[in-house]
Amino acid sequence: MSAGYLALRQHAAWMDLSSRGKIRASGEDRARLLHAMTTNHVEQLKPGEGCYAFLLNAQGRILGDVNLLCFEDHFLLDTEPETRAKLFEHLDRYIIADDVTIEDQTDRLATIAIEGPEAAAVLAKLGAPAPNAPYATAAWGSRTVAQLSSTGSDGFFIFAPAGEKDQLINEISAAGAVPATSEDARVVRIEHGRPRYGEEITERYLVQETGQLQAVHFSKGCYLGQEIVERVRSRAQIHRVLKRLEIDTSEVPPAGTKFTVGEAPAGEIASAVFSPALNKTVALAYVRVPFTEPGTNLSVGTLQAQVM
């Protein structure tokens, strides 16, 4: 087990997530536009609050996801590196007569994550505030602390001017956090059943299939793609859903591996890793609805997987 992996599970680790996209939206109509473009209830957010949301196309397919943070005079959309340009262009296309300005601030803001059970203790040693609700933010001088996690562990993102990044990392290291690699983070993320857009969530899937319903406000009114989301909800019309599996093997099956129940097709693996803590493979997989009950056994070639 690497030091970074152990820290994410048992202590606190830091990760440089500065490549994550950061889009600032300002102007009088910013809340109205984002409310109409995302799946969550943006207009009810107050400064210091935030939410998780999807952006959809007209066919209800997921273009990307965002941590959407509300400030006094703007919103900050934190998104995956792969969706930075796509979501910026998508939003820009729908600004017509609106008083909204969007700016890509990715290169101007560093993002350093502190994650693990002792993440709040590290912030306390730094003298930094620890927001006490998911997606909440607090000012820390020129920096902003947000209660966000990329791995499913307890965690916080610190947004800081790019010129302060090295100093911030030194401060965090001095407070006891150790560096974790992207592979450390991926293993812990999948152990926790936390999907990531670009790997387990793509345009191939519908909102309800991802299981991430915290991203959706079902009674907020119209938004782009809402008709499809509502149709699926009202008809309970999904055939598969993302689930966490455990497989008693150290041989990690590749993404796309199919599994069955008896002779019946039962689904497909989206991602899988070997878990040092569990001494077995953990996977995130799209499982056909009849086989999603926890404890259901699935066949993956000659191996047995269990739905968790």
Labels describing this entry:
22% helix; 6-stranded antiparallel β-sheet; 6-stranded mixed β-sheet; 308 residues; alpha+beta
Provide an overview of this structure:
This protein has eight helices and 17 strands. The chain is α+β, with helices and mostly antiparallel strands and 308 residues long. The strands form three sheets. A six-stranded mixed β-sheet has the order 8-9-10-7-1-11. It is flat. The mean pLDDT is 96.
Please give a quick description of this structure.
With 308 residues, the chain is an alpha+beta fold.
Q: What are the SSEs and their pairings?
A:
Blueprint (H helix, E strand, L loop, with lengths): L2 H8 L2 E4 L4 E6 L3 H8 L12 E7 L5 E9 L3 E6 L4 H10 L7 E4 L4 E7 L3 H8 L10 E4 L2 E4 L8 E7 L3 H10 L3 E2 L2 H10 L15 H4 L15 H10 L4 E8 L10 E4 L2 E12 L4 E9 L8 E4 L2 E5 L1
Helix pairs in contact: 1-6
Shape: flat
Helix content: 10-25%
SSE topology string: HEEHEEEHEEHEEEHEHHHEEEEEE
Q: What is the spatial order of strands in the main beta sheet?
A: 8-9-10-7-1-11
Tell me about the biggest sheet?
6 strands, mixed
- Tell me the strand percentage band: 25-35%
Question: How many H/I helices?
Answer: 8
